[in-house]
Amino acid sequence: MSLVPALIHAAAPVTELPADAAAPAAAEAVGQTLNYLELMLHASLPVKVIVLLLLAGSLVSWVIIFLKVRVYSRATDEADEFESRFWSGVDLTQLYRAASDRNRVVSGLEAIFEAGFREYARLRQKKGLDGRTQLEGAQRAMRATFAREVDRLEHHLELLANIGSTAPYVGLVGTVFGIMVTMHGLSTEQSASIAAVAPGISEALFATAIGLFVAIPAVWAYNRFANRVERLSVRYETFAEEFSSILQRQSHIEE
């Protein structure tokens, strides 16, 4: 008969804990939210150095990104403006005088036009040179200017690519150092627990996260800017070919 009270006790409904009893547990969970600044301050010295290097690389990459956005936007606007003037039927001599004005710096399509027309006009003044020689001289001048303009557009892109490609590996080095420091600390203790391992693993993974944070924008920006450089270079090259055709027709008319 002693089993009856035990069964009655086991069948009794389970009541929930009072709200005031669950409050300390919730407050403790909120208090354990990950603090990245504190994690960085308590990290080992190698991890701190690596994270600082990654943050410096991120700063450099973002400076390059903002500068290149301005450079490519200005190059596109200048190309649109010069092409509208070039194909508007204006006299080439007048257009050349505006491009060769010493009070302004020309670039892009206007620089290619200025170099080609200057060389063409210089060779025309020499006696005994046929139209083919004049045209080839103008084309060489435009090719040289074209190479300089493309090199100017590509300036600093290599640094952006290097930051984007090496940042994950630098972060991985920080991860390795963080795990090494953690394992070395555990070797001096008699018993290992998750509380002892968690801080070191957290700082190791934090270095990996920072590496990805630096690499992803840099790689995306490099691919985007490389595409814009390619499009502008095709536009410059196409203009040089069209301008060469105009000079060729003009040299045949003069002959």
Task: Describe the protein in words.
There is one protein chain. The chain is mainly alpha-helical. The chain has helices spanning 3-10, 19-31, 36-41, 45-86, 92-99, 109-124, 131-153, 157-187, 194-254. The protein has 9 helices and no strands. The radius of gyration is 34 Å and the shape is rod-shaped. It starts with a helix and ends with a helix. Residues 1-12 and 14-31 have low confidence and may be disordered.
Labels describing this entry:
255 residues, mainly alpha, 9 helices, 82% helix, rod-shaped, disordered N terminus
Helix content: over 70%
Q: Radius of gyration in whole Å, from Cα?
A: 34 Å
Number of helices: 9
Distance between the ends = 129 Å
Q: Structural class, please?
A: mainly alpha
Strand content: under 5%
Q: Sketch the major β-sheet.
A: none
Shape: rod-shaped
- Counted up, domains total 1
Q: What is the number of beta strands?
A: 0
Q: Oligomeric state of the chains?
A: single chain
Q: Would you identify the regions where 5 or more consecutive residues have pLDDT less than 50?
A: 1-12, 14-31
The residue-averaged pLDDT reads 80
Order of helices and strands: HHHHHHHHH
Short description:
It comes from Arenimonas fontis. This protein has 255 residues and is mainly α.
Ordered list of secondary-structure elements with their pairings:
Elements (H helix, E strand, L loop, with lengths): L2 H8 L8 H13 L4 H6 L3 H42 L5 H8 L9 H16 L6 H23 L3 H31 L6 H61 L1
Helix pairs in contact: 4-8, 4-9, 6-7, 6-9, 7-9, 8-9
Family: Belongs to the ExbB/TolQ family.
Keywords: Cell cycle, Cell division, Cell inner membrane, Cell membrane, Membrane, Transmembrane, Transmembrane helix
GO biological process, one term: bacteriocin transport
